[in-house]
UniProtKB/TrEMBL annotation:
Highest taxon above the source species: Bacteria
Residue ranges of every copy of the HTH tetR-type domain listed in the record: 21-81
Disordered: annotated span: 1-23
Compositionally biased region (Low complexity): 1-12
Pfam families named in the record: TetR_C_11, TetR_N
Record keywords: DNA-binding, Transcription, Transcription regulation
Binding region for DNA: 44-63
SUPFAM superfamilies, per database record: Homeodomain-like (SSF46689), Tetracyclin repressor-like, C-terminal domain (SSF48498)
The protein, known as: AcrR family transcriptional regulator
Length: 197
């Protein structure tokens, strides 16, 4: 489909038609659906254009390359802020475990996890790691504040704690399938017992 026939296409520079916010949303939704359904290897500009009917040129005006497209798709998946306050250490750990499940189920999917673990798509792995770092920053800050307040052990490494929580969820998924609410509660309680001051 050419830009002239694309109702969501934009013209060049400020003299062209204004950007259509819905087009951005359609592009991101299609890329995320491809990621969940077929894995990260299926996410590219040609596939998104074919799925949406949005011209490739329109997509390239928004995202310079596949790496930028992946970053735009992953950021909203991994960004959730920090656990709600007030809450106990156990409540916060349970929140992170639930968010991990949401990111895996509604975001990167098993194909995305496999691609990172196997190293089969370095561009995707780089985008996911950067997005996770950004998305986990508020949680890391909360952990650091809880350490400073004496709620968590003084010798606790915030990054290692996050690795333990994410790793526990992945291990639970491998052993049992998607962990249920009871598993989340039990795991949060066990982890809280280990890290609480």
């Amino acid at each position: 489909m050419s830009d002239a026939a694309d109702p969501a296409a934009e013209g060049p520079g400020p003299r062209g038609r204004p950007r259509q916010p819905r087009t951005d949303e359609v592009i991101r939704e299609a890329a995320l659906a491809l990621l969940r359904e077929q894995g990260p290897g299926a996410v590219n500009v040609a596939a998104v254009a074919a799925r949406t009917g949005v011209a490739r040129t329109t997509i390239y005006r928004r995202y310079r390359d596949r790496a930028e497209l992946l970053a735009a798709v992953l950021h909203p998946v991994t960004a959730a802020g920090a656990p709600p306050e007030p809450g106990s250490v156990r409540d916060h750990l349970a929140w992170v475990l639930r968010r991990t499940g949401e990111v895996l189920a509604s975001g990167v999917g098993p194909g995305g996890v496999a691609a990172v673990l196997t190293g089969s798509d370095p561009e995707f792995a780089t985008a996911l790691r950067a997005s996770l770092e950004s998305g986990l920053a508020p949680v890391r800050e909360l952990v650091e504040a809880d350490i400073a307040a004496g709620d968590l052990r003084a010798d606790l490494d915030p990054d290692l704690l996050l690795d333990l929580v994410l790793g526990a969820y992945l291990a639970g998924s491998l052993r049992r399938g998607a962990p249920d609410a009871q598993w989340v509660d039990r795991t949060a309680a066990q982890l809280a017992a280990l890290v609480t001051a």
